[in-house]
Amino acid sequence: MVSKGPLLRLIAALNRRRMKLLTGIALVAYVASVWGNFVNMRSLQDNGDQKVENKIEEAIAPLREKIKDLEKSFTQKYPPVKFLSEKDRKRILITGGAGFVGSHLTDKLMMDGHEVTVVDNFFTGRKRNVEHWIGHENFELINHDVVEPLYIEVDQIYHLASPASPPNYMYNPIKTLKTNTIGTLNMLGLAKRVGARLLLASTSEVYGDPEVHPQNEDYWGHVNPIGPRACYDEGKRVAETMCYAYMKQEGVEVRVARIFNTFGPRMHMNDGRVVSNFILQALQGEPLTVYGPGTQTRAFQYVSDLVNGLVALMNSNVSSPVNLGNPEEHTILEFAQLIKKLVGSGSEIQFLSEAQDDPQKRKPDIRKAKLLLGWEPVVPLEEGLNKAIHYFRKELEYQANNQYIPKPKPARIKKGRTRHN
Ligand SMILES: NC(=O)c1ccc[n+]([C@@H]2O[C@H](COP(=O)([O-])OP(=O)(O)OC[C@H]3O[C@@H](n4cnc5c(N)ncnc54)[C@H](O)[C@@H]3O)[C@@H](O)[C@H]2O)c1
Q1: 151 within some domain
Q2: Strand 254-259 with 262-263, pairing
Q3: Domain count, the chain
Q4: Where residue 149 sits, what CATH number does that domain have?
Q5: Tens-digit pLDDT profile for residues 196-253
């Protein structure tokens, strides 16, 4: 007989082992499940982290772009500027410097290494014309109306402030008169106070409806003092008178440029003159409107030629008026055909009845500028027109969306001088 004691002990031992094994298995299962949970939680957490990271990335992406823009604006690339020594560098004021001619003059003087202050009331000028200089250490832009006095220290003043195209100067004739009279007096007063030389941007319009062709500087002109253009024509004539009064009475150094028709990029869409009219019509597929048979002639200079002439005159010792223009004449019909070809436009040329008193000829005599300044226009007409066409095409694209595109105005038939000027 087997005693109960050892058997029970054996069973007990076996049970203990099983229990240990079971406990061990349970423990391993538990650890495995805890680890599994842990791994799951980690991956959930990783996913969460990833989401948060994505959200942060989304939020800071635009900030990054803004920082890049800011960095760009700090390291803005300006057109190349010459270095001028203190002695050669001038402080130059350009009134009307945000306009068509003024902005090109600003470019030239800045690139030549001078310090340029542009004063403009933005009546017809735009900040966009000079924005590429904003922030440059040699450049300053002042929003100011020349009808109010201005107190700054300068060596030279290019006085261009005045609306120039007929729709613009006829818009507010009294303001045009004030700008050309009070504005010019203010600038001459400034020139006197600081000992600066002043160049007046006068105009071929001082010759009015000329009775001599081509017009030289000795011609006194033929102006209707009460016509619709008188605010501009007479305004410029009296501005010239003021210059010579300040020269004779106060010893102010003056230069007077009689500027003839000029064209190029940054000219006004509603300039109203033949070049911009034809380019806009051709680009927009509208008929190019020619008044009369189109045999009347016009002469246009490209803006860079004018700018070179202005700078040459300012730095010359010629104090009497000088014509700056391109004497190369073309008929209106030639202009229409050439512009149509250069634009590659299918527009037709439409002949309308002749505008009354439309001048048959407009041509500068530039012998004085050639002789005394060694200046004459050099930019071929086609080259200039291509640049102007490129500019107008871009402007139309720029303004395409919901913006007003001024349409060329038709010739006005009335007494006195009219279109195609
Ligand atoms: N463009 C031409 O074919 C032409 C021909 C003859 C003369 N000019 C003369 O050249 C000058 C420049 O002409 P543009 O074609 O560049 O004209 P524009 O209209 O483009 O420029 C004239 C500038 O003067 C500014 N201005 C007008 N009144 C002002 C005031 N009261 N105070 C401050 N700024 C004022 C305008 O905002 C504009 O920026 C004008 O004096 C004009 O009479 C031009």
Answers
A1: yes
A2: unpaired
A3: 1
A4: 3.40.50.720
A5: 999 999 999 999 988 898 999 999 999 999 999 999 999 999 999 999 999 999 999 9
